[in-house]
UniProtKB/TrEMBL annotation:
<dbReference type="InterPro" id="IPR024344">
    <property type="entry name" value="MDMPI_metal-binding"/>
</dbReference>
<dbReference type="InterPro" id="IPR034660">
    <property type="entry name" value="DinB/YfiT-like"/>
</dbReference>
<dbReference type="GO" id="GO:0046872">
    <property type="term" value="F:metal ion binding"/>
</dbReference>
<feature type="domain" description="Mycothiol-dependent maleylpyruvate isomerase metal-binding">
    <location>
        <begin position="13"/>
        <end position="136"/>
    </location>
</feature>
<dbReference type="InterPro" id="IPR017517">
    <property type="entry name" value="Maleyloyr_isom"/>
</dbReference>
<dbReference type="Pfam" id="PF11716">
    <property type="entry name" value="MDMPI_N"/>
</dbReference>
<protein>
    <recommendedName>
        <fullName>Mycothiol-dependent maleylpyruvate isomerase metal-binding domain-containing protein</fullName>
    </recommendedName>
</protein>
<dbReference type="InterPro" id="IPR017520">
    <property type="entry name" value="CHP03086"/>
</dbReference>
Length: 196
């Protein structure tokens, strides 16, 4: 399979394309820029995002996950950003393509370890899309989050994010008005107006 691999889960495919297109916009000068993830550079967010997508794939296939800790990314890349990202997106999409939409649950690398398939695919999508936004904000690119994408991801976020906050995966929600994109980012503890 290649970069055109699709999962059959439209939200996940849309989020993967958002991350893919944002990463294509990274230049060498961007790699060490700060991001909305306050302790991480663009490279570290990219490593984290790729590692998470591999973890979602491994949960389904039982195959190998990332060979590094996505929560302690090194900040050093071997090759172009897409060399790290594409295999992760391909593996995740291929794994989700095997999941029956009518199954009772699907394995995921986040608590509680399995979710309804739409929600599990949505969790992978949320992870990809929000990190696409982090990278876009850090590198001066347009937001990859459309109103429709943000609306769908917000439904997922309200189902899965609260238990993850205790592990530091998301900051506390910000209480502020906004459109669908701002509402999603606020819920995830991000400031839509953040600038590097």
């Amino acid at each position: 399979m290649n970069e055109n691999t699709v999962s059959g889960w439209s939200l996940l495919d849309t989020a993967h394309e958002a991350l893919r297109s944002t990463v294509r916009g990274i230049t060498a000068a961007d790699l060490d820029r700060p991001t909305p993830c306050s302790d991480w550079t663009v490279t570290q967010v990219l490593q984290h995002a790729a590692g998470d997508q591999l973890a979602f794939a491994a949960s389904i296939t039982g195959g190998p996950g990332p060979d590094f800790n996505p929560f302690a990314p090194s900040g050093t890349l071997d090759g172009e950003p897409s060399v790290l990202l594409e295999p992760a997106l391909t593996a995740c999409a291929a794994a989700w393509a095997t999941v029956d939409h009518d199954a009772a649950e699907a394995p995921v690398p986040v608590p509680p370890g399995s979710l309804a398939p739409w929600l599990g695919a949505g969790a992978a999508a949320l992870d990809a899309a929000v990190h696409a936004w982090d990278i876009a904000a850090a590198t001066g690119q347009d937001s990859p989050l459309t109103l429709d994408l943000a609306r769908e991801l917000h439904k997922v976020a309200t189902e899965i994010v609260e238990p993850l906050r205790q592990f530091g995966a998301y900051a506390a929600a910000i209480d502020a008005p906004g459109d669908e994109v701002a509402d999603l980012l606020h819920y995830l503890g991000r400031d839509p107006a953040w600038k590097a």
